[in-house]
Design goal:
Elements lengths: L1 H21 L6 E6 L6 E8 L3 E6 L2 E6 L3 E6 L8 E12 L20 E12 L6 E5 L6
Antiparallel strand pairs: 1-2, 1-5, 2-3, 3-4, 5-8, 6-7
Length: about 140
């Protein structure tokens, strides 16, 4: 009796991970590890049925049976911009005692009035994409 309940729970757990695949957003990036294939297949999600995955690989639609899939990694959609802009502005007063040619002031001369100064710098940084997350692993696969 306990063994049957345990098997039933395992079946539901396995179905839940395939439900995650079925709930993926159309066009999302995926890495599909097929059984007996070395490099993972880089694809964009199209749809998933109860027994297969349909994905786009290099502008061609590919049908992959569920029993040939060992593992699926999914890149979550970007929620914010990858571009970060930053601008820094500093303002100050130049009160150095130098004449217009940059020479020190002679004795008896008065210094010119202080001059306002400002400087500004801008930078742009481009961040990376979010990492892949495991959303499906076939039964019996431990990697």
């Amino acid at each position: 009796m306990l063994l049957q309940i345990f098997c039933l729970l395992l079946t539901f757990a396995a179905d839940d991970s395939w439900d995650k695949v079925r709930a993926a957003k159309n066009g999302a990036e995926m890495r599909v590890n097929k059984k007996d294939a070395k490099p993972p297949l880089q694809a964009k999600f199209d749809e998933a049925t109860s027994d297969s995955l349909i994905a786009v690989v290099k502008d061609a639609q590919v049908f992959i049976p569920k029993d040939e899939i060992e593992r699926i990694d999914y890149r979550p959609p970007q929620t914010s911009s990858r571009v970060t802009r930053e601008t820094k502005t500093t303002k100050g007063v130049d009160d150095s005692a130098a004449d217009s040619q940059g020479q020190p002031m002679a004795k008896g001369k008065t210094a010119p009035p202080s001059a306002a100064t400002s400087s500004s710098s801008s930078s742009v940084a481009i961040g990376g994409k979010p990492g892949f997350e495991l959303i499906y692993r076939a039964k019996g696969v431990t990697k």
